[in-house]
Amino acid sequence: MATTQPIRDKKHTRELARYFFELGQIRNYVLVVLAMHTGLRIGDILSLTWNDVYDFEKNIVRNSVTLIEKKTGKRKTIEFGNKIIKALGLYAKENAKSGCFLIENARTSNAISRVQAYRIIRRAAEVLNFDYRVSCHSLRKTF
After folding, report:
1. Most buried one in 57, 85, 128, 133, CB count within 10 A?
2. 138 neighbors 4 (Cβ within 8 angstroms)
């Protein structure tokens, strides 16, 4: 089957997130957690900045984010659950910078590309021996 499938096995969703966490790749861990627990498109996730998700005055992760979806142009508010707040809190300790992209390419200070996000997700699924095609959109479908 050539089309992207959701991750239907809860064990696989945990394995995918844990894979990045155990490698110490917290940025990629946050990417996966956000995608699986918000249902946002990858382009919308990559456009998020630290100012969208982190309150620098109070030094805490926000409980929600409001954004304009790129594809539909609709305004959407996403409430963050505990998993997202914990992941962002862990990531924020060393990476929170006002005005910077949340899922940042360290070399360019821009967000990583959609292609790079796809490669990150696909490679992890290959390493974990998932027997179906996984992409960024799989995480949206998983939600």
Report:
1. 85
2. yes
